Amino acid sequence: MTGQNIPRVLCVDDEPRVLEGLRLHLRKEYEVHCAGNGQEALQKLRELKQCAVIVSDMRMPGMDGATLLHQVMQQYPAVTRILLTGDPGRDAAVSAVNKGNIFRFLTKPCAPDNLKSAVDAAVIQHRLLRAEQEILQETVLGCIKALVDVLALTSPVAFGRATAVKRLAMEFLAGMNCTEFWQLEAAAMLSQIGYLSLPAELVDKLYHGENLTADEQTAANEVSKVAIRLLEHIPRLEPVLQILTALNWPDQAVARLGDGTIGLGTRVLAMTLHYDALTSRGKPPDLAVQTLRSRAARYGAALVEQFAQHLGSSAARNEMREIPVRALQPGMTVMEDLHTSNGTLLVPRGFEVTPTFLERLRNYDDQFLGEKVKVLVAPGGRAG
To answer: CATH assignment of 155-317?
Structure first.
């Protein structure tokens, strides 16, 4: 194996002689990288981009191995995790398995053949996860895209909210270095799919926070159930359905989900949906964040503060411009409700412009296309 074909293995231990031993045993078949503590290991993973296996010591100053592998599980779920420890006690093993969802638990001193065998199996596991991810992208996510395209055509308001929430949630996670989180991306895009069952007028009322009649409220309450019925027969979508289902759970039940894929995904999606609902109805971002802080029991105080910091840094990075409607380009975010000449809401605030939407614009007259609209442009983006 050469170049990019060599699997990368990250070894973490606070003892240099142990790291050197691990490197010697593995370097013939793997590209071996080393770190002396948990923080250094996380930095290495950020730099490496693609890493197949992490082998970590349990007892290290500062961050122990169980905590490190727990963070790796959250931020880099495709990296297979192995714990190497000189303390084979039951408590250490239970902590590591529960917190880091490890693939192998090895004790020191570990025979070279046992270490090599465990890493070989971990690399195979990593490849299986990668292959499964590719299948998901080609099949399951293809089905999701088809459903979302239908939503875009039949309910632009619901589609606009879905794309706005997805963008906000995924940018927030990227800032937390959680780069492999297709479950949340899919859940965000599908969070509004149930609105296909509602009349466009009712979707508009919900978007603007208007008062509903008793019958309208009953129909709105069924939206989440409609979404589950639409999605439950799509294979491999179980974690997405779990996130969408948990959105309706009480605060205590959401808190008990923990920090794994489902727990973190549910809290981030619920928080971004809440923030989007508040700002779309005119509440300033700082007051919207204050409202989120009042729901810290649901979202987690630390997560809300991280979200607030992200919003501040994101606002500083992106540029607000006012351009003609005809100058809209894919990837731009519409920052105000865009109405047609007859007053119909075409897309809501937060809508991310897509090629499909630009095709629809061809049906509108020059007067409408010449109207100005405020958009958010990412760094390096162009506006006509």
So the answer is: 1.10.3210.10
Class level of CATH domain 3-128: alpha beta
pTM above 0.85, yes or no: no
pLDDT by residue (tens digit) across 321-336? 899 999 999 888 888 8
Residue 12 clears pLDDT 80, i.e. is over it: yes
- DSSP alpha helices (H): ranges in the chain? 16-26, 38-48, 65-75, 90-100, 112-135, 141-154, 156-175, 182-190, 200-208, 214-221, 223-231, 238-246, 251-255, 261-280, 285-293, 296-299, 301-317, 355-361, 366-369
- Among 81-85, 192-196, 300-304, 352-356, whose mean pLDDT is lowest? 352-356
Query: Could you tell me which of 355, 359, 256 has the C-alpha nearest to residue 300?
Result: 256
For 23-66, how does the pLDDT look when each residue is reduced to its tens digit (9 = 90+)? 999 999 999 999 999 999 999 998 887 899 999 998 898 898 88
Rg of the chain (C-alpha set): 24
CATH number of 318-384: 3.90.105
Which residue is associated with the tokens 């296909």?
196
- Cα gap 369→349, rounded to integer Å: 17
Name 2's Cβ contacts closer than 8 Å, sequence gap at least 6.
none
**69 within 8 A of 97, measured Cβ to Cβ:** no
Q: Within the chain, which residue ranges are assigned CATH 3.90.105?
A: 318-384
Domain with CATH 3.40.50.2300 in the chain: 3-128
Classify 209 in phi/psi space as left (phi over 0), alpha (psi -120 to 50) or beta.
Answer: left
